[in-house]
Amino acid sequence: MQLADKIEKRRFIGREFLLWLWFESEIFEETLTTKKHGDFGFWIEKEIVLSAGKEATRIKGTTPAHAREAKEALRLGKMPERATFRLVLGERESGFFLKAEALALGALTLPAVLDDGTAPTLGELGAELSAPKKKKKGAEDEAEREADGKAEAFFDRMDLTQEVEGILQELYRDFLALRLGASWEKIVVPALRDWLAGDELDADRYRVSRDKAVAARASR
Amino acid sequence: MSLFRGSLTYARFFVDPALSEPTTGNFADRFLEKLAAHPFEPLDPEGEAAERIGWCRVGEPFETSFIYEDLFFNEFMNIGFRLDRWVVPPSLLKAKTREAETAYLAKKGRERLTKKEKAELKDMVAKKLRKQLAPTTRIVDLSWSLNDGIVRFFTHSTSVGAAMSELFRTTFGVTLVPEAPYTTAARLGLTADEETAWADLEPTILVTEETAPRERGAR
Predict the structure, then answer these.
(1) Interface test with A, best of B154, B182, B198 (most A CBs within 10 A)
(2) Predicted ipTM?
(3) In a 10 Å sphere around its CB, with 0-12 CB exposed, 13-18 middle and 19+ buried, how is residue B22 labelled?
(4) What does the pLDDT look like over A110-125, one tens digit per residue?
(5) Scanning A10, A168, B17, B126, which has the fewest C-beta atoms within 10 Å of its C-beta?
(6) Which residues of B touch A196 (CB under 8 A)?
(7) What are the pLDDT digits (tens) for A151-181?
(8) Of residues A10, A77, A151, nearest to B73 (C-beta)
(9) How is chain B split into domains, by residue range?
């Protein structure tokens, strides 16, 4: 198979990745785990778009994936094309949308960060705003401070961006361990079908099986 | 949306480490030289080019000289990609071309124009109109993470991404691979069996004949 075909003819894997994220987020009560990051909050918020060919269903709301129309669209053969996620890791909270077929991030909002890596409280922000401004030393110092501030802000943004990308990468790695092995048809697809049909699903049992499959891939 | 403020919307491109410029020695000087050879140059209304691309400084579309301090942020190199394009409103071009054709025919005392004359008149009118219009300008930030070979390009437009990739290749001699489910998987490392499995992948069917009637029955 040519490289172009591996890319273009398998873009549907991105949609299946989004579906799997939605499914696991729902059955694991909005808490996902990766070996590298531990537990973190992860759920769909604001919007999910499902489509098949030119037909699309766009659902907006606080928890759009819980809307009846979302699973109805899946039953009609539509797959997630794009979804907006909330990610909470420790004190840090981010939001972004993920375009399935390109695995591209959009509208990534990052938390404000202080030196110790925690977001400022409202009180701290208020104190900062009301504090008297220091007298400027000179145009040169001012330009230097501005450049330093710009660089610092950039590094903070990149650190947080890379953290979000890192989590998604580990999730994708786990997904691939399942999707490219026998466990996809054996473990994941039956669970997805039960979930979609609204049948009772033993989430703990599913977790044990999928963890085993992911660990087996990692040990290879 | 930019590198320095607001929310971030971007596409990732991967740089093959084997093809990437080694970031040792005076690599910064080499990069500065290469960028200096491909700065953005404004469109000329009289020229033939309908669009033009080039590099500029991030947040400063008219600044096309590059200095180390503005470009390098530790392991990141940040630059602006600028694309200018002449966009003459089609209805205006059509009306003005018709005017020019009428005047030309009257001057020549003829009733019809040749195909060549029509094309020349249209081109002449377009160039004349360009002098009265400003080209549309698009500036997109780009951040190249040199250590991990990732380029973040702050738009999802595939056509602008393709234009940038071409300029990137011409400038740095590096081919960018756009992120996609396969390219990300390959970057994470696929075994030979997984490569085969990837080639054989079929979309997952969730609704089967068995489950479909149960769904209908449940309603």
Answers:
(1) B182
(2) 0.84
(3) exposed
(4) 876 544 444 544 444 4
(5) B17
(6) 206-207, 211
(7) 888 999 999 999 999 999 999 999 999 999 9
(8) A151
(9) 11-83+136-186, 90-131
